Amino acid sequence: MSVLKVENYSKIYSGTKKAADNISLDVESGDIYGFIGHNGAGKSTTIRAIVGVLDFTDGEIYIDGHSVKKEPLECKKITAYIPDNPDLYENLTGLQYLDFIADVFDIDSDVRQARIKEYADKLEITDALSDPISSYSHGMKQKVAIISALIHEPKLLVMDEPFVGLDPKAAYMLKEIMHDMCKKGSAVFFSTHVLDVAEKLCNKVAIIKEGKIITQGTMEDLVGDKSLEEVFLEGVNIA
Q1: Measured distance CA(235)–CA(217) in Å, rounded
Q2: Under-70 pLDDT residues of the chain
Q3: Measured distance CA(29)–CA(185) in Å, rounded
Q4: What's the CA gap between 184 and 167, in Å, rounded?
Q5: DSSP code of residue 100
Q6: Which 3 state secondary structure label does DSSP give 154?
Q7: Angle, alpha carbons 173-94-162 (nearest 5°)
Q8: What is the pLDDT of residue 239?
Q9: Which residues contact 148 (CB under 8 A, 6 or more apart)?
Q10: Do residues 232 and 207 lie in contact, with contact meaning Cβ atoms separated by under 8 Å?
Q11: Please, which residues bridge with residue 212 across strands?
Q12: Which among 53, 62, 165, 194 could bridge 5 via Cys, Cβ 3.0 to 4.6 Å?
């Protein structure tokens, strides 16, 4: 079953430039789907449209069967988004911020406490949750953003360069969390420049260049006896 379906999506900036050009993707339950491309290729534009941050006119995007255009609230209830540089309310402590997000999603007190403890322990940030976010490093802010994204057990987790700023252990734990989510029927869609991570982690991948998908499919079918790096470089005509 499709958790995320993008159908003929396009986004035009400045009247003529297509940042995204007739993109179609299908992310199914259980998929860890990698979205690969150079800076400026259209990754973030597409991701922001998927999560409802960026408006669009051409095409359609569905999350678990709900239209992002026509049913935005239903989509947001089951989606979580971690941008490449999360902006958190820095006047709050980590715990206050997580409580605020849990309130937004109407998460029961006992449930939220259990989930915050579970993920904070895994990401080794429990002791810092009482400190103001303004005192956090980029990596610590990223960890809080991850916990806030997971607190309502989203059906779809969308991330833009999620491993940037994470220490090796936190990066490992995030990968384990992604696997656990997908075993329960959710799906993960994320962009990354770290091709070896994508090759080991993802079961599907799409490569985008100048706003167009140049190849997509299962990792096994696309890579074959090559590496993802080789496939990527050949696809964007660099090799």
Answers
A1: 13
A2: 15, 237-239
A3: 5
A4: 26
A5: H
A6: coil
A7: 35
A8: 40
A9: 97, 98, 101
A10: yes
A11: 209
A12: 62
Residue 186 to residue 115: CA distance in whole angstroms:
17
Q: Encoding tokens for residue 180?
A: 């656990």
User: pLDDT tens digits for 172-208?
Assistant: 999 999 999 999 999 999 998 889 989 999 999 999 9
Beta bridge partners of 12: 18
DSSP state of 133: G
Largest CA distance in the chain: 54
Cβ-based burial of 57 (10 A; exposed 0-12, middle 13-18, buried ≥19) = exposed
Q: What is the 8-class DSSP label of residue 102?
A: H
HSE value, Cβ hemisphere, 13 Å, CA-based, for 183 = 6
pLDDT for 238 equals 54
Q: What are phi and psi of 219, to 5 degrees?
A: -60, -40
3-state SS assignment for residue 125:
coil
Look-up of token digits 């080991």: 200
H-assigned helices in the chain: 43-50, 72-77, 94-104, 109-122, 138-150, 168-183, 195-201, 219-223, 228-235
Beta bridge partners of 208: 213
Class level of CATH domain 1-78+154-239: alpha beta
CA distances (Å), 137 to each of 16, 35, 91, 97, 234, in order?
A: 39, 27, 14, 16, 37
94 token code pair: 């980590």
Report yes or no on whether pTM surpasses 0.90. yes
| Residue extent(s) of CATH 3.40.50.300 domains in the chain | 1-78+154-239
Single-letter residue type at 173: M
